[in-house]
Structure formats: structure tokens, C-alpha cells
Automatic annotation (TrEMBL):
<dbReference type="GO" id="GO:0005524">
    <property type="term" value="F:ATP binding"/>
</dbReference>
<dbReference type="InterPro" id="IPR017871">
    <property type="entry name" value="ABC_transporter-like_CS"/>
</dbReference>
<protein>
    <submittedName>
        <fullName>ATP-binding cassette domain-containing protein</fullName>
    </submittedName>
</protein>
<dbReference type="GO" id="GO:0005886">
    <property type="term" value="C:plasma membrane"/>
</dbReference>
<dbReference type="InterPro" id="IPR015854">
    <property type="entry name" value="ABC_transpr_LolD-like"/>
</dbReference>
<feature type="domain" description="ABC transporter">
    <location>
        <begin position="6"/>
        <end position="227"/>
    </location>
</feature>
<dbReference type="InterPro" id="IPR003593">
    <property type="entry name" value="AAA+_ATPase"/>
</dbReference>
<dbReference type="GO" id="GO:0022857">
    <property type="term" value="F:transmembrane transporter activity"/>
</dbReference>
<keyword id="KW-0547">Nucleotide-binding</keyword>
<dbReference type="InterPro" id="IPR027417">
    <property type="entry name" value="P-loop_NTPase"/>
</dbReference>
<dbReference type="Pfam" id="PF00005">
    <property type="entry name" value="ABC_tran"/>
</dbReference>
<dbReference type="GO" id="GO:0016887">
    <property type="term" value="F:ATP hydrolysis activity"/>
</dbReference>
<keyword id="KW-0067">ATP-binding</keyword>
<dbReference type="InterPro" id="IPR003439">
    <property type="entry name" value="ABC_transporter-like_ATP-bd"/>
</dbReference>
<comment type="similarity">
    <text>Belongs to the ABC transporter superfamily.</text>
</comment>
């Protein structure tokens, strides 16, 4: 199982003029959990996700993935951690529109170590097929539908075989049927493949299939429960 366990302790993230953006005294998630994060606009959901990926510096505290405190690492090491262990899915798929689906799915091969490139291409193609897309297609990604593009983005996130999947409103740009399908697929990746999923989402369909849902308000966790 590739999943990673998360443990947060005394985490504080601050913005301009020292404003508190996130304050999480203690929080833990077991490897292979599908966690949904919800809360009103400005509650700190994206900041929370970014802190989990080491994309924002912590003013204090620890963010440990399998015991490794990424908040204590210098940026190059955090970037290496992200490349090695984290897959991202965004609200807007953020594909390179002029590239084909398999090229987008394997984009990590451009940045990762040379030795792993063939594996990234192979996994990208396999994931596209698994998600119902033809891995032999050469047409531009902007010719795909919104639902298909989001599936290409999921294939891209999985091509590096990440232990951790971070998603920011992954279903928000999709119609109901595609949103339901994607929510099920993301949770399946946690349950069947053991990846740890943290999905910021206001989609009740995603909350319903997650193992756990937390509420954020003013940068703090206010509720933490099974759905
Ligand atoms: N670097 C920063 N400096 C100062 N303030 C920031 C910074 N980054 C975010 N903020 C503020 O922190 C608060 C939380 O932002 P965040 O994007 O995490 O909220 P969110 O819950 O994801 O909101 P939304 O649902 O609208 O995307 C907001 O008020 C935002 O303006």
C-alpha cells in the first residue's frame, strides 16, 4: 500500500502583517483515508491543502507525512517531496491544451529523474485507459469534454504513483454525472489503492463517499466527523 499517514502539530500559517490564516493544534489522518475538507469562502481550505504539500511556509509547527516533517525542510527538499509523493488535482484541470492526453498524463516525466520517465509514461497511459480514455489518441487536450479533461488531470496526478492525492474542488467544474463519477474514482483510489486523499470540496456527493469530513472556519478545524 503506498499511502502516507499525516500528523499535524501546532501548525500556524500566517499571511501579510502576521494575520493568522491557519491554526491547527493537532490533527492526524491514517494512511489510505479519504478526507474531505469543507468550509465557507476564505476559511483557509486552500491554505490547508497548500500547507500539506509544503507550498506555504509554516510560521510554527510540524506537518509530518509518515513521520517526515515537511514544514522543517528547505524549499528544494519540499519540492522533491512533492514530486516524489504528491499528486494534485485542481478545480480547473490545468492541462497543456496543445498537448495530447497521453502527453499531459505523462508531463511529470519532463521534471522527474530520467530513470523514471518510461514508468511515468506507462502509468499515464494505463490510467487514461482505466479512466475510459484512449491512451493512443494524439488530438489536442482542448478538444476533450470537461469531464474527460478532468479525467486526464487525474491520470496525470497518478502517473508518478503518489502516496498522497491532494484535490482542490475537483468536481466543481463538472456536471452532476461526471462529478459523481470523479468523486467515486478519487475515493476508490484511497480505498482500493491505499492512497491518502485530501479533497477540498463543497460537493455533498464527495462528502457522502469520504471516510471523514472536516469543517474549516477562520483557519481552524471546527468539526471533524465521519459523514
Ligand atoms: N499569502 C497570503 N497573504 C495574506 N492573506 C492570504 C494569503 N493567502 C491567503 N490569504 C487569505 O487567507 C484567507 C484564506 O484563504 P484560502 O484561499 O485558504 O481560503 P479558502 O477557504 O480556500 O477560500 P475559497 O473557498 O474562497 O477558495 C483568505 O482571507 C485569503 O484572502
Amino acid at each position: 500500500m503506498p499511502g502516507a499517514a499525516l500528523e499535524i502539530e501546532g501548525l500556524s500559517v500566517r499571511g501579510a502583517r502576521g494575520r493568522a490564516l491557519l491554526d491547527v493544534p493537532r490533527f492526524a489522518v491514517a494512511a489510505g483515508t479519504a478526507l474531505a475538507v469543507r468550509g465557507p469562502s476564505g476559511a483557509g481550505k486552500s491554505t490547508f491543502l497548500h500547507a500539506l504539500a509544503g507550498l506555504v511556509p509554516a510560521a510554527a509547527g510540524a506537518v509530518r507525512w509518515d513521520g517526515e516533517d515537511i514544514a522543517a525542510l528547505p524549499e528544494p527538499a519540499r519540492a522533491a517531496f512533492r514530486r516524489r509523493r504528491v499528486g494534485f488535482v485542481f478545480q480547473e484541470h490545468l492541462l497543456f491544451e496543445e498537448l495530447s492526453a497521453p502527453e499531459n498524463a505523462a508531463i511529470a516525466a519532463l521534471y522527474g529523474p530520467r530513470a523514471g520517465r518510461d514508468a511515468v509514461h506507462g502509468r499515464g497511459r494505463d490510467r487514461l485507459a482505466e479512466l475510459g480514455l484512449d491512451p493512443g489518441e494524439t488530438r489536442r487536450s482542448d478538444t476533450y469534454s470537461g469531464g474527460e479533461r478532468q479525467r486526464i488531470a487525474v491520470a496525470r496526478a497518478l502517473a508518478t504513483d503518489p502516496a498522497i492525492l491532494l484535490a482542490d474542488e475537483p468536481t466543481a467544474s463538472l456536471d452532476r454525472a461526471n462529478a459523481d463519477r470523479l468523486a467515486d474514482e478519487l475515493v476508490r483510489l484511497a480505498h482500493e489503492e491505499g492512497r491518502t486523499l485530501v479533497a477540498v470540496s463543497h460537493d455533498p456527493a464527495l462528502h457522502a463517499v469520504a471516510d471523514r469530513v472536516i469543517d474549516l472556519a477562520d483557519g481552524r478545524i471546527t468539526e471533524d466527523a465521519a459523514p
